[in-house]
Amino acid sequence: MKLADALDQFYYYLQDERNLSSLTLLSYNKDWNDVLAWLETQGIDIAGFEAADFTEHTVRRYLYALSQKGLSRATINRRLAAMKSFYQFMLRKEYTETNPLQDVVMGKLPKRLPHYLDLDEIIRVIETPDTSTEGGLRDRAILEVLYGSGLRVSELVGLKTGDVNIAESWARVYGKGGRQRIAPLSSFGAEYLAKYMKRTDGKRRETGVGSVFLNLRGGALTDRAVRDIVHKYCRQAGAKEILSPHGFRHSFATHLLDNGADLRVVQELLGHRRISSTQIYTHVSRTKLKKIYHMAHPRAD
User: Fold this and answer.
1) Active-site residues: which are they?
2) pTM of the prediction?
3) 62-87 confidence digits (pLDDT tens)
4) At what angle do helices 223-237 and 119-126 cross, to 10 degrees?
5) How many C-beta atoms surround the C-beta of residue 20 within 10 A?
6) What fold is seen in the domain 119-295?
């Protein structure tokens, strides 16, 4: 099978069977387009290139070329992951009998602790918007839900009015791979969501947009707009770090564990498939405990 034809089937599989988000599909497409562009620089005619002609030697040459360009280990690993996913798909569908990436391993990444804010700082950020305006009320609701429910930004902008139950303080959330979970709303989150949704109900009827969070023209809010909103209020509040929306999710998890929440419960609340994804927050909490110990115990030093 031609590599180009096989990739078309792979993208179809990711969209229709795996139900991956448009952003994830775009990422796969971007990574593979880079591979194809590199093959062309090697004098290979992509139109006639067979998927089975992709050898381990070819893979290693490509990865070496990426490292020579100065790409980060994380970027190289992401490209390799996209290639591995494709050939695993090829094996499952029996389009090929060999996997040229079987013995190619990803490079180890340095462990990075998640960025988060202390409780008093994050409350200061959350309380910064002017809720007398429609935009300020929306922004307050966004910040409350990001921190109070630990949502990913894609989950936040994907919320529809039918997904939110204000009376019972929960929201139906669609996470990675379309996985559904019920996320609790804090009392503040439910309060400001209710106020915002009531204020913008007429605009939603006019535009026919079912999203909870709208831009000021009545369209659905984007991931980028939410990032800009979070950055804006971190700056206005004078926070020690300008967090991304994911930083609010990190703060949510860290503060839960700091206050004694069970790791499995936090995993469920975050929608992590693997406990290993949640365990990084235990390191953050241990770091904080160690700092407190050295500050408070008379014989710590």
Assistant:
1) 152, 176, 246, 249, 272, 281
2) 0.62
3) 888 988 888 888 888 888 888 888 88
4) 110
5) 19
6) hpI Integrase; Chain A (1.10.443)
